[in-house]
Amino acid sequence: MKFLPVAVTALMVSVLLSCSSQSHAKKNADPTLTKNSSAINPVLTGADQLTAYLPLLKGKKVGLMGNQTSVVGPKNEHLVDVLLREKIDLRFGFAPEHGFRGDIERGEKVSNDKDSKTGLPLYTLYGKNDKQDSIIQSIDVMIFDLQDVGARFYTYIASMHRVMELCAKHNKELIVLDRPNPCGDQIDGPVRKDDKFKSNVSLHKIAMIHGLTVGELAHMINGEKWLEQGRQCKVTVIPVQNWDHNKMYELPVVPSPSLPNHLSVRLYGALCLFEGTDISVGRGTDWPFQIVGYDNPVYGDFQFTPGEKAGMVKHVEGKGQTMYGLDLRSLDANKQVFTLKYVLDFYNKMPDKSKFFARPEFFDKLAGTDELRKQIIAGKTETEIKASWKAELDEYRQMRKKYLLYTDFE
Fold it and tell me: Which PANTHER family match (predicted)?
């Protein structure tokens, strides 16, 4: 088995990444660049640092949780192709929501299949799969490499939790190839505390906009003993180099069909709550999560008509209807932070407010609480609503500090 000629011995499996292992990873980092990099201080994702993790895979049977965001280097080569070229014994891939190549609609069934390019057997962790235990028992080490976008309701972090559950249950190693959080410069929204609202879109007791990378969250899940029966997973995180929570990061690959660019990613946290309503966030257009509207001119002068786009066919609000509302495409993406102003604006403009929360139970799951919906109905302002989150957010911030791998924005 051929590897790059760098000896890496310090990054062995541990529950919490030590400072010495972080410095060792920096020392042996590959000089590959991402679109967010400069020649002086290149941003290196975990996947970019081949010399840090290939030796950990040598002689082992390996599984991968990945998708189209699992890329390596400036050419965005898929991690699967890299691992196979390096003669890693890759046995299967687990696919999250949207599938292994990222072309499946939100909420649609992800079936067991084969990767169209490599023939790698694929299995799903999205939904129920009775074969998951036997699948994980067939390998020695699991890799997790998915690009999160920093919102609690983005289901890739739920997929990581399921991988950790399986690895902990069957005593398997897990290597998390960390990636920057494109919204990692903020913490906001209610903290999900009551298990009544626990779901695939609100699995963890974290803030709605959580301010963590997946590597940091993996350590939090372990440290807070959120896995079943208080188990802990054997986790090694390969940390990002030359990035911290103060730095903007534009994703090199679209993370899912409805988040096609940096602006959509930055607006996603504020606009996703509309999915508990019938308000359109632009699915079925070229600008999902950059425009908002409903079928009444009272909502604004901007007009658009949702249709059918790749990855957005079945679940399109207002398909074929003229929508009236807001055009957010000219906003500076880097300046966007979580806000309730869009949801409050549309609620206040709706003639029959009893129809606004078309799917109240799902809205509450997105929010992680039913208090937000009740506060909106009661006519609370954004300032009043956010003030009600302060105590729980302060408590969350203190917990979060224990698991940070990077310089914080606060």
Answer: HYPOTHETICAL 460 KDA PROTEIN IN FEUA-SIGW INTERGENIC REGION [PRECURSOR], PEPTIDOGLYCAN BETA-N-ACETYLMURAMIDASE NAMZ
